[in-house]
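in:
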């Protein structure tokens, strides 16, 4: 397709545009000759000002867009750094919490030592469980090296508003190694100890039972039908055997009467949680009472 110069000059739009250009050129020359060239500059500025503003706005928007992503990346890095610091603080808080719990336990046993000056004790940690029938024997990190011997009682500390409920029975040392020992929980089948009801002072025998140990409980057995006992009663050791007196055993959760033998049986929920207890104290020596 050939470009015809004659057709271009016949185009109305081209002619109008050419006239405008000629007029503006002529106007500019005249204004410059008369010393009024600034009018042209002002006119050009007036025309270009909206375009300049748009260019500035576009530049600012682009800069803001880039700045947003830069700030976003900086925030991501700060958040990652904060998360890392939080994880470190949480770990430190857990360690501090463990130290506080252990300190409370040791302080509590120190209070027990002040109360019973004839007690000699060794703190220990439960490190493992020896699988057995339903109730596991507990392994502690102390043994003959720490003067532990067979049949020594083992107790734990439990936070309580009542002083008498703080020191709770766990069991006794059944086997002693050089640096570890095995603890038998007091609710194991065949285990028993003397006990008394705090509210009335009446005594009985706490027994372990095969069926009960599966439920994590034991019983206060062979009580006469005249015994005053009810749900919620607190049961403590009466002394005279492996265990010292006045250590908390647990709480009565059910009382059942046997019409044939005319006796009562109280079922006890132990104060110690065998699945959770970690820190214990072995009583190396104490003055036994034989009431």
């Amino acid at each position: 397709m050939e470009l015809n110069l004659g057709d271009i000059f016949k185009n109305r739009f081209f002619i109008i545009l050419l006239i405008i250009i000629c007029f503006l050129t002529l106007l500019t020359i005249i204004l410059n000759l008369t010393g009024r060239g600034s009018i042209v500059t002002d006119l050009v500025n007036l025309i270009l000002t909206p375009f300049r503003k748009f260019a500035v706005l576009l530049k600012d928007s682009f800069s803001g867009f880039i700045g947003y992503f830069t700030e976003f990346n900086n925030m991501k890095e700060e958040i990652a750094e904060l998360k890392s610091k939080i994880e470190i603080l949480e770990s430190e808080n857990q360690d501090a919490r463990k130290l506080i719990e252990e300190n409370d336990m040791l302080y509590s046993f120190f209070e027990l030592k002040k109360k019973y000056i004839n007690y000699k004790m060794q703190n220990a940690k439960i490190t493992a469980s020896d699988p057995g029938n339903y109730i596991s024997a507990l392994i502690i990190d102390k043994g003959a090296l720490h003067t532990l011997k067979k049949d020594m009682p083992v107790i734990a500390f439990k936070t309580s508003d009542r002083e008498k409920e703080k020191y709770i029975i766990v069991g006794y040392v059944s086997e002693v190694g050089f640096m570890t020992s095995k603890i038998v929980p007091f609710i194991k089948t065949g285990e028993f100890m003397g006990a008394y009801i705090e509210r009335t002072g009446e005594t009985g025998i706490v027994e372990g039972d095969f069926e009960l140990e599966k439920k994590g409980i034991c019983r206060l057995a062979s009580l006469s039908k005249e015994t005053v006992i009810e749900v919620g009663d607190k049961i403590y050791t009466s002394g005279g055997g492996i265990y010292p007196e006045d250590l908390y055993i647990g709480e009565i959760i059910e009382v059942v009467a046997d019409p044939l033998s005319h006796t009562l049986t109280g079922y006890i929920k132990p104060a110690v949680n065998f699945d959770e207890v970690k820190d214990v104290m072995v009583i190396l020596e104490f003055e036994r009472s034989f009431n």
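note: The two ends are 129 Å apart (CA to CA).
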